[in-house]
Amino acid sequence: MxxxxxxxxxxxxxxxxxxxxxxxxxxxxxxxxxxMALVERIYEQWAAFFDSEEKQQWRFDPKTQDGYFPADVSxxxxxxxxxxxxxxxxxxxxxxxPDALEEDIRCYYRQANALAGELLxxxxxxxxxxxxxxxxxxxxxxxxxxxQTLLRILYYPPMAAETxxxxxxxxxxEDINLITLLPxxxxxxLEVMGRDGEWMAVPCDPGQLIINVGDMLQEASGGHxxxxxxxxxxxxxxSARKARxxxxxxxxxxxxxxxxxxxxxxxxxxxRLKELGVI
Length: 279
Ligand SMILES: O=C(O)CCC(=O)C(=O)O
Ligand SMILES: [Fe+2]
Hints:
Blueprint: E1 5-7, H1 13-24, E2 26-30, H2 36-51, E3 67-69, E4 87-91, H3 99-125, H4 129-132, H5 139-143, E5 150-156, E6 170-173, E7 179-183, E8 190-193, E9 199-201, E10 209-213, H6 215-220, E11 230-232, E12 244-246, E13 249-250, H7 265-276
Parallel strand pairs: 1-2
Antiparallel strand pairs: 2-10, 3-4, 4-5, 5-12, 5-13, 6-11, 7-10, 7-13, 8-9, 8-11
Enzyme class: oxidoreductase
GO molecular function: 2-oxoglutarate oxygenase/decarboxylase (ethylene-forming) activity; metal ion binding
Organism: Larsenimonas rhizosphaerae
C-alpha cells in the first residue's frame, strides 16, 4: 500500500488516514485547516534569517535546547558516518524566538498543535481495542499541555561545491516523538522506506501535510503503528543551487506520560538524545 493522500473533509478520512499510518508509517492530508499562506510566509522569513549573520546571536542553549543550531553541531543520524547537511532552529512554547519572527511562528505552532490533537484522537479511535487498552491515557491528552513539543525550522543550504563523501541533507532515521506533522517543504527530497526496503519519494505538492509515526507511538502501540525510516536526499541539477526549508512539528508527550511498561516519555527521550550525541 502506498502512502495514502486523504481529503480531511471527506467522510471516512479518519479511517483511511489511520490505515495509511498502520501500513506505511506515513499519511498525507489535503484540504486541512492549516493556513498554508502562513507557512509560505514562514519559509520566506526564515530563509532570510538563515542567510543573515543575526542567527549567530540566537545560538542554542545546550541545557534547554532552544535556539539556532549551526551546521557544525547539527545531528548525525544513528549509524551515519557524517553530519547532516542542515542547520535548524528549535522553537518551544517557552523558548526564545527573534521578535520579528515570533508572531507567525507561534501562530503556526498553535494551529499545527491543535490539528495534531485531532489526528491523535483519530489514531486512537481506529486503533484495535487490544492496542488502545494499553494507552495509559488518551493519545491527545498526552500532548495536551506539553511544553516538550518541538517546532523545528530546518534549512538545508544550497549544495556546496564539495561535500564530504556520504554526507546527505538528512540521513536515514526515525523520529523519536509520538507523531510528526510536516507541511510540504519548498523543495522535494523527502523519501520514506517501504516495507520492501525500497525508497519512495513523499509527495510535496504545496498545500499538503505529511504526518509520520515516531518511535514513541510505535512503543506505546506495541509496534502496531510502525515508526518508518525516512531521509532527505541531496538535490541534483538546478535544484542543487537552491536551499530547502521544512517545518516539522514533533509532538512530544509531557515527560511524566507512561508510554509502556518500559518507558516514560522522559526516559525514552533522554535515551535517544544520548544516542544522537546532542546531550
Ligand atoms: O526536511 C524534511 O522534509 C524532513 C526532516 C526530518 O525528517 C526531521 O527533521 O526529522
Ligand atoms: Fe524525521
